[in-house]
């Protein structure tokens, strides 16, 4: 009882394939180079969002 591959790809795009600002924790697009938020000074210190662990 799994999820359809096409639906899974769409869900991953909107929820998982993101970048996170290390200063303000904003969720940003995957291709972002700087943060969009003013409160962190448009920081360039980004990391990829951590991948969820698959269930056994």
From TrEMBL:
Q: Which GO terms describe its molecular function?
A: structural constituent of ribosome
Query: Which InterPro entries does the record cross-reference, listed alphabetically?
Result: Ribosomal_eL40_dom (IPR001975), Ribosomal_eL40_sf (IPR038587), Ribosomal_zn-bd (IPR011332)
Which ranges carry the Large ribosomal subunit protein eL40 domain?
Answer: 2-53
UniProt keywords (A-Z) are: Cytoplasm, Ribonucleoprotein, Ribosomal protein
TM spans, by residue?
A: none
Query: Gene3D superfamilies, from UniProt?
Result: 4.10.1060.50
| GO biological process annotation, one example | translation
Give the location in the cell: Cytoplasm
According to its record, what are the GO cellular component terms? cytoplasm; ribonucleoprotein complex; ribosome
Q: What is this protein called?
A: 60S ribosomal protein L40 putative
Q: Which organism is it from?
A: Entamoeba histolytica
């Amino acid at each position: 009882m799994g999820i359809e591959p096409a639906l899974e790809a769409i869900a991953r795009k909107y929820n998982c394939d993101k970048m996170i600002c290390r200063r303000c924790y904003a969720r940003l697009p995957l291709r972002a180079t700087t943060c969009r938020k003013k409160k962190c000074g448009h920081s360039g210190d980004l990391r990829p969002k951590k991948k969820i662990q698959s269930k056994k």
